[in-house]
Automatic annotation (TrEMBL):
The keyword Flavoprotein does not apply. The keyword Repeat applies. One of its GO terms (cellular component) is cytoplasm. This is Uncharacterized protein. ANK repeats lie at residues 75-107, 108-140, 141-173, 174-206, 207-239, 240-272, 273-305, 306-338, 339-371, 372-404. It holds the Pfam family Ank_2. Gene3D superfamilies: Ankyrin repeat-containing domain. Keywords: ANK repeat, Repeat. The lineage of its organism: Eukaryota, Metazoa, Spiralia, Lophotrochozoa, Mollusca.
Amino acid sequence: MFKQAYPTLLLMMWGVRVKYLHKSPHAVFNSENTISPNMCEAESKVMQLAANGSLKELDSLLRKDNKAYAFANQDGVTALMLAASEDRPDVVNLFLQHGAKSDGVTKDGWTALMAAADNGHSRVVKTLLHHGVMVDYVTSDGWTALMLASKHGHSEAVDLLLSHQAKVDYIDTEGMTALMIASAEGHLHVVELLLKHKANPNLVNSEGVSALMFASQRGHSRIANSLLLNSADPNIADRDGVTAISSAAQTGHCSTVKLLIKHGAMIDRPNRFGVTPVMFASQEGHLKIADLLVASGANLNKTDIDGCTALMAASRNGHVQIVTLLLEKGAEVDPADDTGVTALHIAAENGHSVVVHLLLTWKAMVDKATDEGVTALMFASQNGHLEAVRLLINSSADAERVNNDGVSAAMFASVNGNTNILELLKSKDS
């Protein structure tokens, strides 16, 4: 047997979707997991009142025991934090009046302000800020209250934090900023607030990914537009050389691709494997994007590091309309990759008979062989693609030809038990 027409390595390179992921810290604030059976009666009572009890009863308890506010569970969660997470500004204010430590932290570095910001409790955020809490404490993952509010789209909380001088470009342990997080999550109003407060749109995380790249990969075109209007660089590339336009082309976000082109994105810039936006679009079957890139002057005959073209990518996956588009707009039909494989070989191997017919109509060389001497007819015969074999034979493919090891199409069909193809090949000879 011979190896696949389409190199496995290249499939891996192109097949990995550009997923810009970021982790978010986990909070431990709620009445169910905060109130522990190990607490004494007084501690449990304070926690219960903080979560959902009577303000008057809590005030009475705190007057009797002026240290009750200091109780914390095994994770370091205090009654103040619990009240903040449950959106009880009056209770938060009461604790602070009785001397509760506003900037206490859990074992993971969480504060009451973070609990409120994470849940979008703007009244609690406002109360805590009024009492002078530190706005830029960070969790063990490097997240601030601003990042937490930004992730969930809590624009009112974001606005409050920014008005109290929260560091807009604070970077977490993965290099993420609030702007990147909001852009990834699709929170337009938050993005606009951050940009208004001079967030830098061209910072990148530890993988080299910018806010614009996050927005483009996920198709948040309105956010991408806001970022571009605030001087975001459309040609920043991540560690693999992937740019915003490549990411949007691969994931199928046409309006974002159009926007990026308008703002000067380089349409032929390859990633570190040589894959360009039009190659990504062709592989994934995104016809509108491929058409847009072609109309914008994309080089259709550019090759990746293995010599593969956009036409080969479209042929492998049977994207007939894209194959047609590429051929009509000037893609060469017979270029070969570094192993001598052409688009016709790829289409024949994968049984895409309509693509085979198209390529033959555009005068693809029917008997062109790979470096191993393998022809399109051999590929189709080995894999049992009867219609492709018929098309190739009708285009005068040489059924007697053998590869470098002396194996013919009929021999490949026989070894793989493709009797219908073997009969077709024999009938041609008779």
